[in-house]
Amino acid sequence: MIDNLKRHANNIGNRIATINPIVFLYFSIFLITVIYFWSKIVAIFKSDPTAKDEAIKVTNTNKAYLNSKSITSDGYFLNGLGQKTKYRITQARQHAEDLSALLKTYRGAKWYSMTVSFFGLGSVSRVKRILNPNYPASFRRYVQEVYRTVYTDNRSLQTDVRAALTGFAGSSAWDNNLTKYFIN
Known about the structure:
The protein is mainly alpha-helical. It has ten helices and two strands; from the N terminus they run ααααββαααααα. The protein has a two-stranded antiparallel ribbon with strand order 1-2. It is elongated, with a radius of gyration of 21 Å.
């Protein structure tokens, strides 16, 4: 039985060795492109009424933030001192949409996401990169509110992230930076 396994492993190794390396390059470029543009690919298949409803909800949220003087009229966030930051409202909306897509697909492939995240490619590392505590408080509040009201059905971003980052046997990828992100 062990000889059969060795023979099969050698056959697989020989087949992989005979593949042209350019095929691996093409495959890796394809895979990286799909991962990088995943949210835009998902947006292509979104139904039109859903997209219109989301646009209306985002517009209402934008008006509320404009009225509360958290953003400028040209879409930039203001920091605690009332100064214009480099962060735009479109970037915050994109973060909320990305988090929604990641956390929805994360549940189905949790083992995959946890495994690949050790190499910096999975959902855990992507969620941690999006939830950077260095963003202004108004930016972070906007992401949380748009996530809750537009892209999910009044679910808390913090609760969803905490559940998504809980791995095998109660292990957790939650860290201090994520705690800082949710402190307004």
